[in-house]
Amino acid sequence: MDNATGERAGYRRSAGSPRGEARRRELLEQVTDDVAENGLVDFSLRRAARAAGTTHKVLLYHFDGPEDLLRQAVVTLRARRIGNALAAGTAEAATLTARVRVAWHSLRDEESQLRRVLDQAMGLAMYDPGRYAALGRGASQQYLPTLVSFCPPHWPDQRKHEVAEMILAALRGFLVDLLTSEDGSGAEAGFAALLRAVEREEAAG
């Protein structure tokens, strides 16, 4: 606590300094790599410090405690996933249906550990919202802009968002099915149905 203001200190102490911000980003990338490899279970500042080759006091200088650091690591992991899906979807496909298909293949074929870690984050947010709500809060806001960008540009904004919400909800369910089923056949069948629905939306003009 900052005794003068009653506010937690955290990474605001390094805000505004290009060197401090660069160091914060470097630490975050290193901690994110550890979270991607080892998951969220038993995450702590000391574990994060070992992964970043520093001390927990240094992390507390740049981040607002372990929950803030973990939240930012999860956000960074989602951004990596979104970047991969966006790059694949826009480079190889021209229609919404084709982009969704390519994005799904990117998500389906990504490392199962990454899917597991991001699902762990959502699970923790639901299981203990008092402590981990931030891990789930804003997830849709990260994913939706990419899906909206896949939609035909002439569509009204409301329609883009409605279709993007439908696609996001379905893909989330399919990713969970991939992690919990033996062969993923349910996810593939569901995805085929989703593509038919998206094709109908495109055909409607």
TrEMBL record:
Residues annotated to bind DNA: 44-63
Tell me which UniProt keywords the record has, alphabetically: DNA-binding
Q: Does the keyword DNA-binding apply?
A: yes
Domain HTH tetR-type, which positions? 21-81
Protein name, as recorded: TetR/AcrR family transcriptional regulator
The domain of life is Bacteria
Q: Disordered: where is this region?
A: 1-23
Q: Which InterPro entries match?
A: Homeodomain-like_sf, HTH_TetR
